[in-house]
Structure formats: C-alpha cells, structure tokens
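Journal club side-thread
Mid-discussion, someone asked how the predicted structure for our own chain would compare to the paper's figures. Pasting it here so we can look after the session.
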Amino acid sequence: MSKNTHTQLRFFHDDEVRMNSIGRKDILDRAKSNRTRLRNGLARDGEPAPVGSATQGSYAMRTMIHNEQGDRDIDDGVYFTKESLVGPSGADKTAIAARQMVCKALQDKRFSEQPEVRNNCVRIYYADQEYHIDVPVYRRTRTNDPVTGENVDTYELASSDWKRSDALAATKWFKKQNLEKSTDASKDGDKGQFVRIVRLAKAFARSRPHWSGKIAGGFALSRLVSDHFVENADRDDIAFRDVLRAIRDRLGWNDRVKHPILDEDILGPGSAKAKYLRKKLDEKLPILDVLDDPDCTHEAAMKAWDDFFYTDWFKNQPDPEDEDELERKTNAAPAIKMGGSQGYA
C-alpha cells in the first residue's frame, strides 16, 4: 500500500487548484456585463437580438483552476436563430460576418483594448485582470420531430465556416460523467472525485510555464480522465496516480482523443500535444514512485508532490502522525492553508 497522502492532496486541490467562489463570481459578473453590452450594441446597430447566452467550457463544467500564469478565462456563447442571421440580400450571414457583427456590437470606449474577432469567437480583454472573455457565436436551427412532436434544436458555431457544435451538450456530458463515476458527486458538478482528478490533471499540465501551448488542453484532459478514471473512495492520491498512468500508457498506442458528443477529434492521430503530454507524464510520474516505498517518510512524500506539481506548497504541510509538529506548525504559521475555510463554490 502506498504512502497515504490523500489528505494533503485534497487540501492542495481545495486551497491551490480549484477556482474559489470569489474568482468565479468576478468572472461571471464580467460576462453578464458583456451580455448587456452586446444586446445594447446589437439594438443600436439594427442587428437581430440573440435568443440566449450560456457559459460553457471549464467554467460551466466546474473545472476552472487557479493558474500562476493567469490565463483565467470564460467562454460565454451567444445564440441566434438561423433565420435571423441573414445578409442584405437575404442570404445566410457568413460565419465571419456573424463574428464581425458581434464584435462591432461589443466595442466600448471604456476598454483599453477593444474586442477583436478571433478564429472561433470574439475576444474581450481586461487590462487590469488576469483573464479574458471569449464570446463564441452560434446559430440555432429548430425542427419539429414528426414522431414525438417535440422541437429539436441543432447548433452551429461561427468558425472558419459554420460548423456543427454543441457546447451545452458537452457540459451535460461532463456533469453526467461526474455523477456516474463519483459516489461523492454533487448535481451542480462542483464536488466529486472525478472532477477533482480532472482539476488536478489540469494543474499538472499547467505547472510549468514553458509547457504552455505544447501540451494537451483542458477538454482533451477531461476526456482522457473520463476514459480511464476508476474511483478509489477516500484515496484521491491513488485515483490520481492510477488515471495518469493509464493515460500515459494509452497515449503510447492511441493518441487520438475523440470528442464525446460530436463526430470529430479533440486531438487527432499523431497530435503533437498528445505526444507532449505522454512525454511529460513519462518524465514526471516516476517522481511519485517513492510513495510506494514502505519506508517512505512524510518529508520524502511531500517533496515528491512538490517536485511533481513544481510547487513548494507541500513542504509546509505538517506530518499528521506527529502531533507536536502538527500543533507547532498550526499555531506558528496561520498562513498555512489547511483547506475548507474559504467558501469554495
């Protein structure tokens, strides 16, 4: 049996990895302000009103994490009916024209850097914050099922062209995975061993600044964890190591990561990002082998986790078997976070 570091890893997740309620509220408040700005701008420009907006991606899936390099962002999709998105001649508005329409409506002299059209969204920058807001643009087609009589909605994203996409369905898929795979899961998707392991996997992938842009992203990691996760109740440390080893081994013979909803790949065969992830797992997982030593000390275990996550957080954690050290460090160093007290949502 490996050294039990479940408690320390859980505190690390709660204190250093998971985005807290204050950060989530701040980002969502910005998104809501932009929804109002967008609606007002569209009305000003004589453009069609959206039928709705919805957060998506890591914010909606509850997998947002703290990140030393910033890169805290939110995807807040805006939805129009297909019938409303037409050009002057009555033809369907092109994908680029739809993004340009949204970008123009979001312009505001109070921004130090104006929103810009990107390949798959309109991006809004905040000079005083560590994040940006992406606004993907969707068109909805509604048909009636002749058998059930119910409305059936399909969605297309304004990318290089209009392409089938359903971010809402992806969020539902992820939350269902958490509920099905974690006995301690909550319906809102915030709690559950599965979602904790996804956050920790993302924290590892973002642990070194020079890995940025080279390694598999959050949604690919979510799919990979889903494919290989096995719950280990009361032992997040074992569940985490087991799933990372399974991902490493799988990527050695199959580096294709398929989208869970759409008939497309998140990472295609031969993906450089998948290969980079496997390389880094192959390099760093052996650091944690010391945990399997029956004589592993608390200090050695904490050093291993520090080296794995490229942090110095673990070295400050008292040995739970040393009551004198536990009391001394708790009383002498109140800045040491022992989890659970910051109102995480």
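Post-session note: The mean pLDDT is 90.
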